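Lab meeting, item 3. Inverse folding demo.
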């Protein structure tokens, strides 16, 4: 006799959270090395870890503290990179959602690297990232002159002289920034060691609360107000005009700063 089978409950394996992450420097999806945690804002100690599927989507099948598909509630998502390539970040979303997550707060500026066609959350390079030697890199140690401390989580934009954004990046909690990007317009048969490009650098920064958060809130970090550079110890500029040389890191600093830092003045210190 065949044993009888009783279905006590139908288990719905439909994902209630799905998100892709994009390397902000190079444009491709990130599907390895991340720890993506989801929790309800009222229960930060109860976290669910997302898993990545074959479509590069990080998914959670069951939200912590919520069994029903509706109504939606505010959840926090935190991203850490175990491989040290990307800065950590967090953001708030309404869940559950049957669509790939996107953030309406992301600044809408065209990037030179091709964006993937589906919604994706950008991840920004960490200063210790090991990148391909064929990439350009801009480095800076950002310093907040209003607080006399590191400009933690400041945003930097690198553009060409026509205003096209080449790469967007962020400093870490110690003000250290590394922006990796493709060299613009390398002509065929060009002598690489002779190539150079004019660039424009802009900064966006508001002093974070104290103590400086270990993980920045992504929307707040990306929508900081414009900051002023101190190219030397006596003047201030809304942007810097720089020259990038092929094969040479572009290290930006304030002239006469004894620690080779790049000083910033927030618009509203």
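The presenter then showed the designed sequence:
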């Amino acid at each position: 006799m065949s044993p009888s089978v009783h279905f006590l409950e139908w288990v719905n394996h439909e994902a209630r959270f799905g998100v892709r992450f994009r390397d902000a420097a190079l444009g491709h999806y990130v599907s390895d090395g991340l720890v993506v945690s989801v929790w309800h804002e009222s229960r930060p100690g109860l976290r669910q870890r997302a898993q990545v599927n074959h479509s590069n989507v990080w998914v959670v099948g069951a939200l912590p503290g919520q069994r029903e598909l509706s109504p939606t509630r505010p959840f926090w998502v935190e991203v850490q990179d175990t491989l040290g390539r990307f800065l950590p970040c967090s953001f708030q979303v309404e869940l559950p959602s049957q669509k790939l997550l996107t953030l309406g707060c992301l600044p809408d500026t065209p990037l030179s690297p091709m964006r993937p066609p589906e919604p994706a959350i950008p991840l920004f390079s960490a200063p210790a990232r090991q990148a391909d030697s064929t990439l350009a890199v801009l480095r800076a140690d950002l310093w907040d002159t209003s607080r006399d401390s590191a400009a933690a989580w400041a945003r930097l934009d690198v553009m060409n002289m026509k205003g096209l954004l080449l790469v967007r990046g962020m400093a870490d909690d110690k003000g250290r920034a590394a922006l990796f990007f493709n060299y613009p317009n390398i002509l065929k048969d060009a002598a690489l060691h002779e190539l150079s490009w004019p660039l424009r650098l802009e900064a966006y920064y508001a002093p974070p609360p104290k103590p400086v958060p270990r993980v920045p809130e992504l929307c707040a970090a990306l929508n900081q107000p414009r900051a002023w550079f101190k190219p030397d110890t006596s003047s201030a500029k809304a942007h810097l005009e720089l020259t990038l040389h092929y094969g040479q890191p572009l290290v930006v600093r304030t002239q006469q700063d004894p620690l080779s830092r790049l000083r910033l003045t927030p618009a509203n210190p």
